[in-house]
From TrEMBL:
Residues 165-376 form the Mur ligase central domain. Its EC number is 6.3.2.29, 6.3.2.30. One of its GO terms (molecular function) is cyanophycin synthetase activity (L-arginine-adding). Keywords: Ligase. PANTHER family: CYANOPHYCIN SYNTHETASE (PTHR23135:SF18), MUR LIGASE FAMILY MEMBER (PTHR23135). Residues 402-530 form the Mur ligase C-terminal domain. The keyword ATP-binding does not apply. It comes from Kribbella solani. It holds the Pfam family Mur_ligase_M. This is Cyanophycin synthetase.
Amino acid sequence: MATALVELRVLDGANLYFSRAAVKLTLDVSALVDAPAPAAKVYAQAIGLGSTRPGRIGSGFRQRFAIRVAGHVVRRIARAAGIGRIGVRVRPETDVRRLVVAFPWAHEGRARALGAGIVEVLDAFRPDHEADLSDLIATVGDRVRNEPPGNAPPTLRPKVPVVAVTGTNGKTTTSRMIAHIGRAAGLHVGWSSTDGVYFDGELVKYGDFSGPSGAGQVLSQLGIQLAVTETARGGILRRGIGVAYNDVSVVTNVTADHLGLGGIDTIDQLAEVKAVITQITRPRGWCVVNGDDPRTFAMRLGSPAKCWVFSRDPDAPSIRTVLDEGGRATTVLDGFVTVLDQARDPEPLVKVVDVPMTLSGLSHYNVENTLAAASAALGLGLPRAAVIEGLTTFAPNENNPGRMNMYSLRDFTVVIDLAHNEAGLEALIEIMNGVRPPGGRLMLAMGSPGDRADEMVATLGAMGARAADRVTLGHKSEYLRGRPPEELEAVFRAGAASVGVEDVPAYPTELAATQALVAEARAGDVVAVMTLQDRASLDSWLRSEGATVDTPEVLKSKVERAQH
């Protein structure tokens, strides 16, 4: 017999639905949505819902009817089980025959039993059969009541300050910068990211630890005094956040990425997911948000913490709003990273061009990451001198591998960067143009993981082909995620063809695609690669070819030469 259950997922911490551990049921309610209206109405009455209007078969109205039914089933079973009050969230999915039901839990065994009971009552619906469901609900309620309680949520309650960082772009760089500032302040710092878990600059565990397990790994380090956790959407959706609260939350931005996965189909829904970290920030802490991104700026309204906004524009309306609300701001004023507070004079910290990560002020995205990191560090109460030292000693290649790493090879430039989505590629193209001297060409090795939507992959192909004089494709064999490389090639080439570029050769790896471009490069050219898996081998190969890492002084000279 078909069942309504698609998935039962136990979320161990704060999540999209609640600020604490919850059970998430993904349900297929096709039977209810496709049933004749009289039969649907009878079922609603049988579970005690009373007067209803089911609406037309397969319609949005019918889906909303199913939402009411599912929520009522949860509450009826909970009452029968002796649970006085229970929070319930029922959310529609794009498919009108799908719903998500979520409720918080304190004991895993009983929570799973409640989830199973909800499915059992929904499965009892028969379009051609009227039934009194009171006995079934009572039976299910007794079963939930008598179920062994099981484990409590494993959500951690940290004893050291925690900074949680999220965003579509810049979260790894910002996390690393905050951790670096913490070390400049003399603290023992642990941080987790998509690259692994680090403690005092040493890699403890390699892998993607941007989920709740990363927080656990960081906080388990002996002697830790500050934890910085990169928090990605996937971890929030799959398991929730691993800590009960944070002292500072940072949201860099929200742009299109990973859409169509995990029930997240729009940028607004993605913003909902990322806002979770701001909702568990302690009231005495700070919620640091990008004032130039309306979605992140709005997150301050759902946070119990005070708002610390950042923007490159000192006259941004968001800055005026937050200062009027009693918050703080970090911006660029007369070329300086500057803190603004309504109650005191502006406080300049350091010249933007003296922060290596900004690439002499050329990288607008890294200027924003700098503002975010400074805000978070000061919000933690770290000394001003440590913030300045941390910002000015954070070197792109050494401290931020894989993000805007720049090399000089013979008489041209090579750039290695993650650039995994449209905003990332836009930032990479900005840098390439910023260091290209007159007469130099842009040469780009593109690529994408296999789980990106065709629309995004085609857009990347069009963006790269439009901006660069020469493009290649370098596959990410470890990240194809079941998708044939030929399929990705076809979508990339379709995007490139849409802007008139037909010659797009493909290579099995990022390294091979980069080597092909380097072989063609001439004096003044800028070669860049969107790298995800070959960063270490690219760095090693470039050095073997005689490439040197660009120092801030070399980079500054390249920027000046490009401008003149």
